[in-house]
Each structure stands twice: as C-alpha cells, then as structure tokens.
Write a structure and sequence with these properties.
disordered N terminus, single chain, 228 residues, hydrolase, mainly beta, 8-stranded mixed β-barrel, Sortase, Chain: A, hydrolase activity, transmembrane, membrane
Length: 228
C-alpha cells in the first residue's frame, strides 16, 4: 500500500461526522434531542421500523431501472458544493453528493443526513480504483439518512450517479458487509483496478454515551461495479 493509500486508510479510522471530532469512522455519533425514552423502547421502536421498511422495500424493488448505461443528462446542483446526484431505485433514494476533503486528517461527512459526501481524495466515478461515498445513517431532528437503508441492498440492485451531467450505472456485487468500525479496509482506498463504487454508513449495535449521544459499533459497506 502506497503512502497516499496509508494516509487515506488512516482517515477511515477517524472520520469527523458533522464537523464534530467526537465521531468515529462512518459509524458516526447520534445526539439525542432529550426525549426521555429507555434504550429498550428505542430498540423496540427501531426493530418495528426495520420490519416496516423491509416490507416496503419489497415493493420498491419493482421500480424499473433506467436504460442505456452511461449517458449525458441535465445536472442542476440543488445544494451548495454539489458535484453529483446519487439515485438508488431499489430504496427510492435520490440525494445530492458533495465533495468532502480532510480536515485535520479526518474526512468530514455532511451534517445534512440527506446529503452524501464523496471523499475527494478517492477517484472520481469511472476512474480506476474505488470511489468512496459516505453518509449518516440518521440524526435526531433530521430522520433517516440518504444511505440509511443501504444494508437492505442485494446483489444486482442498481445505483446511478449523475456526475456533472454524465450518468453512470453501477451494479451491487455482493451482500452488504457489516464490519466493526475499528477494522480498516485498505481495498477501499485504492486507485488501481476496475472502477468500483463503495457506499458506507453506520450500523450494528448502538452504544449510548451519557451527555454526548452515542456511537454505532459497525460500518455498513456496499460495493458496486461499473456497468456503463
């Protein structure tokens, strides 16, 4: 692994979420809004929502994919700094993508959970290597993040990126990986090999930190290959 790749993998260990140095990796931190609910109640509520989402996702997968692979399409930025738009038909998701660089050696994930961050030190879509996109799974007061459901994706699901007017099509390769956020994945920070898209958010067990909020123990990682 090159010096540049080692530097990028170091950022994987400590990503600053929403500008807060308290966050670790894409797993992030969730700050409560003071609502007095027990952990058990929150878990039960989230479990119920997961079942509801699973049922709705089954019907959403009927959304027809676009035809033609790579093509030129209109692109009009909707948020400041937007460089692209990501669409995931299987999840009924469409969200702006903004470029995010390191701050004090850490990648900043957009504080708006409905916006996805592109690590601008990884390749742009279609170039050799891995294009890394990351976002919050959720945030109090904002709800679920744009990438919050990527753990529901299955091999064959399609992802579209409108990158400044050029739309590319990507196909999910394997089942999403749930990995402890302490584990570094060097393969996600390479500039070699076939074009690959990596989507990352947080997931797994949630640990509450009194007075701060808490953190998720794992990262959810989805990799997709360029179709056209």
């Amino acid at each position: 692994m090159s010096v540049a790749e080692r530097a990028r993998s170091a950022r994987w260990r400590r990503l600053a979420v929403g500008g807060s140095a308290l966050a670790i990796v894409a797993g992030g931190w969730l700050v409560y809004d003071g609502i007095a609910t027990s952990p058990a109640a929150r878990i039960a509520r989230l479990t119920h929502l997961d079942h509801v989402r699973a049922r709705s996702l089954a019907s959403q997968r009927a959304i027809a994919p676009r035809q033609g692979g790579s093509r030129l399409v209109p692109f009009t930025p909707t948020v400041s700094g937007e460089v692209a738009e990501i669409s995931i038909p299987a999840l009924a998701v469409s969200a702006p993508v903004v470029a995010e660089g390191p701050v004090n050696g850490e990648l900043t994930i957009p504080s708006d959970v409905h916006t996805v961050g592109w690590d601008e030190q990884t390749p742009s879509p279609g170039a050799p290597g891995v294009t890394l996109l990351a976002g919050h799974v959720n945030w109090v007061g904002q709800g679920e993040g744009a990438l919050g459901e990527i753990g529901q994706l299955v091999p064959g699901d399609l992802v579209y990126l409108n990158w400044g007017g050029r739309e590319t099509e990507w196909r999910v390769d394997t089942k999403p990986v749930l990995s402890p956020n302490t584990v570094v994945h060097p393969q996600l920070f390479t500039t070699q090999g076939p074009p690959t898209l990596a989507l990352v958010t947080c997931g797994g067990p949630f640990t509450e930190v009194p007075g701060v909020g808490g953190s998720y123990a794992d990262n959810v990682i989805v990799e997709a290959s360029l179709v056209g």
